[in-house]
Amino acid sequence: MSMKSITLLIAGLLFHVVVYAANHAMHDHSMMAGNNNQAMGMGILHHVNVDKKTVNLTHEPIPSLNWPEMTMDLPVTKRVDLTRFKAGDQVHFTLKKGRDNHFRIISMEPHQ
To answer: Could you tell me the pTM of the whole model?
Structure first.
């Protein structure tokens, strides 16, 4: 293998690492999910914003979406009663991809 080929290979690998890191840092998981439009997960809530209908949580890996464990903000649908939850709660939740290709929590229950 020539030095030029090795240099191009390394540059290509670095490019993919930077692109993956940038996408992961922005928490835009719409492209990471493959063809799955719905998935279940477990996590712990850090912040609940009833007015904005969002939660901040750390979820366990979600293999069906190719999501690693991470902390992120997620919107919830009107069906989820956020007044039942507080920071520190462990929860089971169901995500669904909307027409805008972004995931939202469509159901959430306390984990006992």
So the answer is: 0.69
Q: Give pLDDT tens digits for 63-107.
A: 999 999 999 999 999 999 999 999 999 999 999 999 999 999 999
The domains of the chain are located at 33-110
CA distance 34 to 66: 8
* Dihedral, 2, 7, 9, 15 alpha carbons, nearest 10: -170
Q: Would you say the C-alpha torsion 25, 23, 74, 44 has a positive or negative sign?
A: negative
Domain with residues 33-110, CATH architecture: Beta Barrel (2.40)
